[in-house]
Amino acid sequence: MHCQRRPAIVLTSGGLDSTTCLAIATSSQFRPVYTLSFDYGQRHRNELKAAADIAHRYQVAQHKVITIDLRQFGKSALTDEIAVPKDRNESTMTADIPITYVPARNTIFLSYTLAWAEVLDCRDVFIGVNAVDYSGYPDCRPEFIQAFEKMANLATKMTVADSAKPFVIHTPLIHLTKAQIIQRGIELGVDYSLTHSCYDPTLEGLACGHCDSCLLRKKGFAEAGIADPTKYAGKSE
Predict the structure, then answer these.
(1) pLDDT, position 134
(2) Of 45, 139, 171, 213, which one is least surrounded by beta carbons within 10 A?
(3) What domains can be seen in the chain, in order of their start residue?
(4) Helices 46-57 and 16-26, interaxial angle, to 10°?
């Protein structure tokens, strides 16, 4: 049976989840695949090099980096002079929306992605949001994705002109645990040593091993029964 290939854009941060999303997109019917990253003033800008290296590894059609300065608004430990929380247990992580939440980040990212998708006449976008092992972020919930997708289909020329081909946001990881995401990635041949997840890396780019993102990453590899290839500060692994 012939399967028609169609283009897709994958939002990539250089992290574990978005890289798994990229592997899923490239292993399916989507061609060409484009990747989009954001330099938004984040303190963990190491992720941008990781995203570029991963895009090159997957030989994507084009990799774009959009520069926007969310430091102008602040109020996030990722874009402001606020300490990144360390060594928190999971109940503390999910008790409230954490200070590492960047106001409206995924709304902004998806809006830029939608603009590029319309230029490319691309109806499919992948984003690695997760509602299981996510750290309390409201813009990682299924309800948010559904609402944005509905808005996008009302707001773009391409979908109004051809409503038979709707804009779709693919969230293949949204109901998976971190361990399940890693297992899926391993099945697809993802090299997780290329990925970067830490919110507060050293100047040398080593993961701190203590922020929420590092702790969830460590837990995921442990539960998946797979060796963690991450280079952590002060440790040999």
Answers:
(1) 56
(2) 45
(3) 6-197 (3.40.50.620)
(4) 20
